[in-house]
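thoughts on my protein:
***
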Amino acid sequence: MDERPAAESTRQNAHGNSKRRRVRKRDIACGIILAFACIGVITVIVLIFAGIRHLTGGAETAKSTDHVLIEERPFIDVELLTPNEYSRPQLALDKVNGIVIHYTANPGTTAFQNRSYFEGLKDTGETHASSHFIIGLDGEIVQCIPTSEQAYASNNRNADTISIECCIGDSTGEFNGNTYDSCVQLTAWLCTRFDLDPDTDVIRHYDITGKDCPKYYVDHEDAWDAFKKDVASYIKAHGTKVSEEEYQQYVESQAVGGSSQE
């Protein structure tokens, strides 16, 4: 019997088995590599999300605990209006989300003259109008409404903003140096008092209703941008970082019984 065909068959079987073993090893190696690759991708994704969560959490913590205060308040002449439905309705202002800058639109008038106009509305009833603060041509600051109450100044933002009226010397509506400096100082102090951002939370009456107020700072956007930068610079120069506990203690010390003083 010729044994060559059997030997050839044995060699072919051995060759086939060897090839299958190589394929199997290759498949196993590819599977291991793919598994490690998947683990690597999953690890990277987990680290990325962990990093984002850490950064987000850190930002929230900084916002809630990192406060800046200007402890020395500007001199304010507190001359509160008599409670009445036309200019001091005594509606609660529970949350302050912004500061609105206005101009009086009557050149040459003083802070007290404008305050007297608001006070007189209780008798005339001709309109609803008032402001928390009025800044005069000499830089004097007169307060008409406590910051715990609403003023009739900023339309649909009366309920969550503090208003500042500024006296003007002429029809351009530009604040003179004294008025401007006091407005920067008062706005900066209020920003730290209520934890507001000068860039986003200090607005014009114009930004609420489109009214041409404060006129000069509507007509000159660059001047308005400069004003907000001056407020931010004042905070940076005069502000002090405090803890959450210190900030809350300060807020409490300025509230309730002190509401007539701001």
